[in-house]
Amino acid sequence: MDSLAREYPDLFYMDILGYGTEYGEPIWYMKISDNPEIDEDEPAILLHGCMHADEILSTEVLMHYLKDFSRRYNENDPRVLNWARGLEIYVIPILNVEGHKVVEDGITWWRKTCRDNNLNGVFDTLMDGVDLNRNFSLGWSGGPADTSDFFYRGPWPFSESEAQAIRELSYRKKFIIAIDYHSPTYGRPEVVYYSWNRSEMGGLAVDHKMLLDAAHNFATSILKDDGINPYDYSQSSAGNGYHRMWQYNRFAAIAFTCEISDTTIQDTSMVDMICEHHIPGIEYLMDRALGTGLNGLVTDAETGEPVWAEVKILQAYHPNMARRFTIPETGRYRRLLLPGIYTLEVEADGYRTKRFYNLTVHGDGSTIFNVEMEPGRLYTGVDEIYLPDGLALKQNYPNPFNARTTIEYTVGPADYSEILKREFPVNLAVYNLQGHKVTELINNIQHPGTYSITWDAKDRHGNPLSTGVYFYRLEVGNSPNRIETRKMLLVK
Fold first, then answer.
1. N or C, which end of the chain has less CB nearby within 10 Å?
2. pLDDT tens, residue by residue, 295-324
3. For the domain 2-289, what is the CATH superfamily, name and number?
4. Do domains 293-386 and 392-490 have the same CATH topology?
């Protein structure tokens, strides 16, 4: 990593994330960005490996990814340049540094940290160590409490400084994607696990469809060691102290566990192939981080300053889950979603709560929706705001028609960030089969909303029109993408 950071200082930044629990060994990470030494207001991804000390294929995959990224960056690969400009990617090849040194010293089956559980000052494989993937707070109490257990949860949640380092970085960056890479000491090989089924949180995850979609696309982008079949994907149950569960609960991240290959220490002749198989999976994750979702800034309506606010997507919310907040320094919130119509609620101490209905998330990138919060310390209600459904032109009624017909249409902004401020030039006109404009029904400025107008089947001069097919066209603003046309039949 050090050589890559020196060779590509405009792409990589290498630093110490934290220190090991027992001996204080440094835990190194690499940040990938076009401004790697600056904290930018960009979506963040976390990829880490060797949480379990013997699972060295995870380290191999992540180091291969760093080298592949640097090579393609040097070749001006447009996809790589786009990821570097639009994302902050944090890579931790070895999280459990101290435990991994035990493996390097010859105890190749060791998976835990080196915590001296019996406080005798001597490393003892029968009593010492904590399983880092049982040390996160969600479900921690359900993990093994016996220090001799292979999966010992630790004396308390986040007892291990390695887990604490992940926690502090995650609170700072609020990762929207977080992947922990493993290799199977036990259980299924070549599989991606996603969250969850927890009875105390309503069963299936509130983002189940989105997580299933992402798990499918991630897993099927990775070839198994046979070079033919893709990785499997599976919904995990509750889990006890797992990293992926904690990340999803706390930050609504797409958080997966990826089990690489079918063993922890693989035949060296297979390693390069396995690493190469995983590159398309990581590429999917980077594209997904820049893809469909919702993001915006929450600010004070009077000062423009960032507001630390709780942000809820009511269609993906459960009261027993952790509260999700904006980044305090910027007021930014981010949420990966599937395309659809959502209800957004924003709440902050000292401000009027706002609830926005009919917020459309499109499938061609992240939808931007900024929120201005109005101070109101004594106000306990909710400001409910019904957003228009965007540009929509309905079929006229009746149709066919004789003397008159009604046309209903909806005007909405192309960018929801300006929903409460904008007025729009609106033109609604009728054309004949030859494409000639016969009359103009609307040509003025209108606010977002739903409108209707009745047409009396006459042209612009007041002359009745003859039987035939006519078209009515709605145009909002000056964009060719903001035009809709429908057909109607006049019968005399």
1. C
2. 999 999 999 999 999 999 999 999 999 999
3. Zn peptidases (3.40.630.10)
4. yes
